[in-house]
Amino acid sequence: MKISTKGRYALRMLLDLAEHENEGFIALKDIAERQNISKKYLEQIVPVFSKSNFLRTNRGFQGGYQLARSPEKYTVGEILRLTEGSLAPVACLENDPVECERSAECMTLPVWQGLFKVINEYLDNITLQDILDQAKERSIDDYSI
User: Fold this and answer.
1) Phi, psi dihedrals of residue 76, rounded to the nearest 5°
2) How far apart are CA 80 and CA 77, in angstroms?
3) Structural contact between residues 82 and 48, judged by C-beta atoms closer than 8 angstroms
4) End-to-end CA distance of the chain
């Protein structure tokens, strides 16, 4: 499994909104500048999250985007599933139940199922707030006099 640019940029965009949540609605151009991501690329990502009610939008002079929920309510797993689709490491696990004709005798299926379980449990237990907190801790640890 490889996370695409779309998934990585989406996570960075949502983290930027989480980091600046007290500043009201944030313009895409500001996110693009801070994250060094093309505004055009972000414009392609935003509709995915707007349709899924992840974002609040406001048009006009003070327009922009805000998270619809607090940062601790968003998991990396749900964000990546929206942008990447399935997080399954192999195609046969993209449907539940497994639709592969060989699944009954496949000796490797339990390996892929175990990996899929670990991936989902790991990503579903990391929130935007967790990432912000970890970044804050790292910056405190890097402090020197």
Assistant:
1) -60, -35
2) 5
3) yes
4) 42
- For residue 60, what pLDDT is reported? 81
> How confident is the model over 47-91, as pLDDT tens digits?
999 999 999 998 887 889 999 999 999 999 999 999 999 899 988
**Unique residue bearing structure tokens 């997080």:** 87
Q: The whole model's pTM is what?
A: 0.88
Residue pair 25/66 in contact by the 8 Å Cβ criterion: yes
49 residue type, one letter: F
**Which conformational region is residue 64 in: left (phi greater than 0), alpha (psi within -120 to 50 degrees), or beta?**
left
Cα–Cα dist 92/65, whole Å: 37
- DSSP E strands: which ranges in the chain? 55-58, 64-67
CA distance 45 to 10: 7
Q: Which residues contact 2 (CB under 8 A, 6 or more apart)?
A: none
Q: Tell me how many degrees the CA angle 77-79-82 measures, rounded to the nearest 5.
A: 105
Q: Are strands 55-58 and 64-67 parallel, antiparallel or unpaired?
A: antiparallel
Helix (H, G, I), strand (E, B) or coil at 98: coil
